[in-house]
């Protein structure tokens, strides 16, 4: 459950914590005309990057080209945290990174293992993230709804919104 006070103090830290607790989100390329698709992310906090492993046969991998602007959206399992991340998505060749990220779950998608000729590693360098966190406490939520219904000038105060900008890598 998202701690709203921690989010107010350090929204970027909350983002990393939430990404660690979410298995997948929706990834898409800006202007591609294609729908976003579900993808599992691998987090590199220090570099402000996410990695995705996919096949070079997917529309996403084909259209990522050398570099492309992408959005990745996630929602926490408790539905009290939402994020839309934007940045540059590009295919990379990095055997050490692929070895680091490889697991039995990833292997299930590639019958020939890490040597599968269609494996593509996508690197998502974060530029900005729009974040929303709300209270997961149903009593606070109910109280805020009741207060808003009793006062036409009041809207429910159940969450916060922040935008985080990530430093460009040197």
From TrEMBL:
InterPro entries assigned: Split_barrel_FMN-bd (IPR012349), Stress-Dev_Protein (IPR052917), YdaG_split_barrel_FMN-bd (IPR038725)
Pfam families to which the protein is assigned, alphabetical: Pyrid_ox_like (PF16242)
General stress protein FMN-binding split barrel domain boundaries: 11-154
Organism superkingdom: Bacteria
Name of the protein described by the UniProt record: General stress protein
Organism: Celeribacter baekdonensis
């Amino acid at each position: 459950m998202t701690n709203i006070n921690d989010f107010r103090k350090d929204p970027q830290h909350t983002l990393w914590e939430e990404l660690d607790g979410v298995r997948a989100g929706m990834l898409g390329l800006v202007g591609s005309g294609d729908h976003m698709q579900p993808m599992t992310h691998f987090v590199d906090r220090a570099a402000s990057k996410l990695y995705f492993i996919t096949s070079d046969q997917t529309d996403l991998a084909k259209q990522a080209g050398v570099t492309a602007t992408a959005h990745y959206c996630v929602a926490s399992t408790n539905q009290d945290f939402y994020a839309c991340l934007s940045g540059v998505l590009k295919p990379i060749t990095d055997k050490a990174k692929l070895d680091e990220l490889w697991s039995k779950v990833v292997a299930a998608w590639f019958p020939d293992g890490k040597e599968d000729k269609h494996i593509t590693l996508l690197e998502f360098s974060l530029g900005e993230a729009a974040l929303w966190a709300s209270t997961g406490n149903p009593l606070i939520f109910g109280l805020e709804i009741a207060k808003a219904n009793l006062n036409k000038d009041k809207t429910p105060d159940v969450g916060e919104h922040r935008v985080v900008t990530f430093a460009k890598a040197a």
